[in-house]
Specification:
The chain is α+β, with helices and mostly antiparallel strands. The protein has one domain (6-299). It is 16% helix and 40% strand. Strands 1, 2, 3, 4, 5, 6, 7, 8, 9, 10 and 11 form an eleven-stranded mixed β-sheet that branches. Strand 2 and strand 3 (41-49) form a beta hairpin. It is globular and about 55 Å long. The N and C termini lie far apart (46 Å).
């Protein structure tokens, strides 16, 4: 897995039981509702650097932009006696760091249907590509502040850990009249992509005696970045650098994207720089896509 990746949720969340964990640090229990028809909810432990010492109520509906990753058992969620939180650590599926939030009111009084799925931006290499079905998977590594708990636990046990946590998705490009002759922008295997779309549910599978959650994404936009090259080992260093895979054709194929945000920096720089550009693009796109309608609804 490459570190040139990124995952975030943007949308409505119910934040509960804010708890102070450092001088400026808070942790919330956050509920995100997933897609129809189940409208199931998923529980996340979200941390916030409370720069201005804002005061938060025990429960509130918020518009949230947060980095996101799958929960690790060694992460402290600060529940239990005296916390106010009724949840147990094994009920949390996700962890993340809040980058932006906007208070909308008490959930029952906000006048907003908060059972709407978050909008996801995920950047990483595509695998398990099925071109006829227009499906592929993307697993992105995403660092969060809570990852320090994982590193600390590993150090105490004399173990090595990955560079960060991760989030897995199963992406589907639905049939749509926007694609001429049904030519969908499906990436080839190992092609780096930035995917944006709505979460439509969650699939849990048993992998290596552990439950792995993969979030189903209804793809709204795909940006093609570069080609994934597996990390070299001392024995295969010279060969790994020369490996390559096919990539989707440019030009005619590119015009079928929902929105063409291919910046010059995404075409000319390294994969790490591409991922950084994609992160900034994801932030801007999500704010414009979701925040404006909410503000308009509130004002009317």
């Amino acid at each position: 897995m490459s570190s040139a990746s990124y995952a975030s949720f943007t949308g409505l969340a119910i934040l509960e039981f804010p708890r102070k964990i450092t001088t400026k640090g808070l942790v919330f229990d956050a509920s995100f509702y997933l897609g129809l028809p189940e409208r199931q909810s998923v529980l996340a432990s979200l941390r916030l650097f409370n720069q201005n010492d804002e005061v938060f109520s025990d429960i509130g509906l918020y518009f949230v932009y947060t980095t996101i990753a799958q929960m690790d058992p060694s992460i402290e969620v600060f529940t239990g006696e005296g916390s106010g939180s009724p949840y147990t650590p094994d009920e949390f599926s996700l962890v993340g760091d809040i980058q932006f939030l906007f208070y909308l009111g008490v959930p029952s009084e906000a006048g907003i249907d908060y059972r709407k799925p978050p909008y996801i931006h995920i950047c990483g290499p595509a695998f398990d590509v099925n071109i006829p079905a227009a499906t592929f998977s993307v697993t992105a590594e995403q660092y969060t502040g809570a990852f320090r708990d994982v590193q600390k636990a590993a150090a105490q046990n004399g173990q090595r850990v990955a560079k960060s946590l991760s989030l897995s998705t199963i992406c589907t490009i639905q049939d749509s009249a926007r694609y001429e002759n049904n030519k969908k922008p499906v990436p080839y295997n190992k092609r780096f992509v930035m995917v944006a779309g709505n979460i439509t549910g969650m699939t849990s599978v048993l992998e290596n005696d552990k439950i792995k959650d993969s979030y189903r994404v209804d793809v709204g936009n795909v940006v093609f970045l570069g080609t994934y090259v597996a990390p070299a080992t001392p024995a295969t260093n010279s060969g790994a650098a020369s490996s390559s895979t096919s990539t989707p054709a440019s030009g005619k194929r590119a015009k079928h994207l929902l929105a063409s945000f291919m910046l010059p920096s995404l075409q000319t720089h390294s994969l790490e720089e591409k991922a950084t550009s994609a992160q900034g693009l994801a932030t801007l796109y999500s704010m414009l896509h979701l925040l404006s309608p909410l503000v308009l609804n509130i004002s009317t």
